[in-house]
Amino acid sequence: MADGKASSLLKPLPMKGGDGTYSYSKNSTYQREGLMVTKEAVNEAISKLLDISNTSNTIRIADLGCSTGPNTYIAVQNIIEAVQKKHALKGLSTTEFQVFFNDLPTNDFNTLYASLPPENQYFTAGVPGSFHSRLFPESSIDIMHASYALCWLSQVPIEVENKQSPAWNRGKIFYSTSSDEVAEAYAAQFAKDVNNFLNARAKEIVVGGLLLPVIPAIPQGFHRSKTAIGFTFDAIGSVLMDMANDGIISEAQVDSFNLPYYITTPDEMVNLVERNGCFSIEMMKTPDPFVFKNQPINAKENNSHLRAAFEWLIAEHFGSSVVDQLFERIDQNEGFYSKLDASYSKVLLLLALKRKGQN
Question: Is residue 359 domain-resident?
């Protein structure tokens, strides 16, 4: 785009709502496995680090980027059980819990609340808005959790869709195999977003409260091109270029479509937290997100997950008729998933961040 304006600037990024075949509610088991492999670390963080000496009779928890599926309820229940166990060990009476579920206003909150577990024992509220800015009153939240959320950028870097920029990402939709200029533009946007995220949370979390982000990451020492997610996004971009060559969409449409998604490394994230200065890093874990997965990637299952996460973006940019054709072409590529298994390299990054005292 010659004027330098990103076509996806500040656009909403909803997962596929409802409970249909391709809904996020039914296609988020990978994220659920992430909760499984980080559960023990979350319990440890709350047991060792959460300061309950000054808490009120109500513990307030927020799950940021909650989306629509059951995963957010699993994450919240894990946190509540850990807090209850800590109270019991300290001989304290059972407290009450208030839980805030946050996502963008375009999130399908109706489906989210329709699936609220009937046995839940906490007070709930929905908080629509971007977690890249303030969401709650000052010093009002004890524990904040965000799983598979910070990897979503607030916007596509402007430079990658500007034809006059050395970071123009022509013919690609992601940065994993693009030039260093493209990768640096994505990294700069991620750094800005993380800083805004931490500044907002520092206002909202009580002193001594915990921030628990769970983030897809690249193992330390791996190049950005050597990851399963990068391989997947490049394959989608390649199929879109094939569709452009077949006249179904235009090459200009592909050039102006970039995914607002970033995969950090543990060292990069540590540096960003330390540079921000609002939180101390009390714990860091990097488990394998597929530690329980002992079989090759299932093609149909993986396609459904991709579609649940990215259908809205693809349909909004190229038109809804393109979505079926795109995933049909990926299905027909028999070698895609064998290569994807071979390219697999990914970890989850769990940080336990403790709010520093007021200056």
Answer: no
Model confidence pLDDT, tens digit, residues 241-290: 999 999 999 999 999 999 999 999 999 999 999 999 999 999 999 887 66
Cα–Cα nearest to 218, from 276, 273, 289, 160: 289
Over residues 291-296, the mean pLDDT reads 54
Total count of domains within the chain: 1
Q: Which has the higher per-residue pLDDT, 295 or 46? A: 46
Flag whether pLDDT at 21 surpasses 60: no
What's the domain range around 110? 22-353
pTM: 0.89
The verdict on residue 346 lying in a domain is yes
CATH number for the domain spanning 261: value is: 3.40.50.150
Full 3-state SS string of the chain: CCCCCCCCCCCCCCCCCCCCCCCHHHCCHHHHHHHHHHHHHHHHHHHHHCCCCCCCCEEEEEEECCCCCCHHHHHHHHHHHHHHHHHHHCCCCCCEEEEEEEECCCCCHHHHHHCCCCCCCCEEEEEECCCCCCCCCCCCEEEEEEECCCCECCCCCHHHHCCCCCCCCCCCCCCCCCCHHHHHHHHHHHHHHHHHHHHHHHHHEEEEEEEEEEEEECCCCCCCCCCHHHHHHHHHHHHHHHHHHCCCCCHHHHHCCCCCECCECHHHHHHHHHHHCCEEEEEEECCCCCCCCCCCCCHHHHHHHHHHHHHHHHHHHHCHHHHHHHHHHHHHCCCHHHHHHHHCCCEEEEEEEEECCCC
88 occurs within a structural domain: yes
pLDDT one-digit tens code per residue, 194-208: 999 999 999 999 988
